[in-house]
Design brief:
Layout lengths: L2 E3 L2 H8 L4 E3 L14 E5 L5 E7 L5 E7 L7 H18 L5 E6 L8 E6 L2 E6 L2 H5 L1 H12 L3 E6 L12 E7 L19 E5 L2 E5 L1 H12 L3 E7 L4 E7 L6 H21 L5 H20 L4 E4 L3
Parallel strand pairs: 1-3, 8-9, 13-15
Antiparallel strand pairs: 2-5, 3-4, 4-5, 6-7, 7-8, 9-10, 11-12, 13-14
Length: 299
């Protein structure tokens, strides 16, 4: 199996539980095509875990396991089943919901929506693209759907050197105009949500789900940031700390990150959003002892 070594900063990020390792945090650039499952080691060669490798994205590695386990059909099938079991427990009787949401369900680069008897799937990174047939077979085996549609017609694939694509993969999918065809992001621009320490791509429907979670006693923090400013919106209910109090702590954390970005002359918006999200989460935990949902929204 290919092996990728991390530099000191990358090792620290990995051991802290961050699911992404950026290309600049690799000890050296591997000679791989992209899409491989790789062993991850520290600068001394000590085993750290396994990840999915991308040869094109700034995100070179996406976490799969801290253990030396086989990353293949059995692991993928178990995580699909685990993700679906969570939704069935939360929304018993529902037949329209997001089944798999990337890193949040320990399946980086895979998004699966269920619309009754039809599945809509997005393969967003090189590794899920490389395992497209296997993942589709596993989804069919688990759900027994009427049809599976590949809705990988999203621009984020271009960051992985992949072309957008829309095609029926299995069975019979209803004609255009059905729910699966109308499932385009509309109300809120795509961004990243940090929930339970795992980042994932989000779409408007998911933001609405997070608002529902806020009503059940969660805290949702929306952040729109640039290199000069950060707009904060907080939705909270049933927790200690008012929206204004939580918002002020998050703004203070965001301002510190923005000041650091200016001092270090950093202009990478991806880094900025990630660092603000992490700082905001830590502030909420430290001051209010809450675990917020952080949503950096791309304006």
């Amino acid at each position: 199996m290919p092996q990728v070594a991390l530099g000191p900063r990358g090792t620290e990020r990995w051991q802290s539980g961050h699911p992404w390792i950026y290309r600049g945090d690799l000890l050296q650039e591997p000679t791989l095509d992209g899409g491989e499952v790789v062993r991850v080691v520290d600068p001394r060669g000590w085993f750290l875990g396994k990840a999915l490798y991308s040869s094109r994205s700034k995100i070179a590695l996406r976490w799969m396991s801290f253990e030396d386990v086989a990353v293949g059909p059995e692991l993928f099938a178990a995580r699909i089943a685990q993700a679906d079991a969570l939704r069935r427990a939360l929304y018993p009787g529902e037949t329209t919901y997001r089944v798999v949401h990337g890193e949040a369900d320990l399946l980086p680069g895979l998004v699966v929506d269920r619309y009754g008897e039809v599945l809509s799937v997005q393969f967003l990174v090189q590794a899920t693209e490389a395992h497209r047939e296997l993942l589709t077979d596993l989804l069919v085996a688990h759900f027994r759907p009427r049809g599976v549609m590949d809705r990988s017609d999203v621009n984020v694939r271009t960051l992985e050197g992949l072309e957008p694509r829309r095609v029926v993969l299995r069975g019979d999918v209803p004609e255009r105009g059905s729910a699966v065809e109308r499932a385009e992001p509309a109300a809120v621009p795509a961004g990243r949500v940090y929930f339970d320490d795992r980042p994932e791509l989000i779409e408007p429907s998911v933001v609405r789900d997070r608002r529902q979670m806020a009503e059940e006693g969660f805290v949702v923090v929306f952040i729109s940031s640039t290199s000069r400013d950060a707009d904060i919106a907080v939705v909270t209910r049933g927790v200690a700390g008012s929206e204004s109090e939580i918002g002020e702590e998050v703004r203070r954390a965001a301002r510190a990150v923005l000041a650091r970005a200016t001092a270090e002359e950093r202009e990478d918006p991806e880094w900025l959003r990630a660092e603000i999200a992490i700082a905001a989460k830590r502030a909420c935990r430290r001051v209010f002892d809450i675990r917020p949902v952080i949503v950096p929204v791309v304006a």
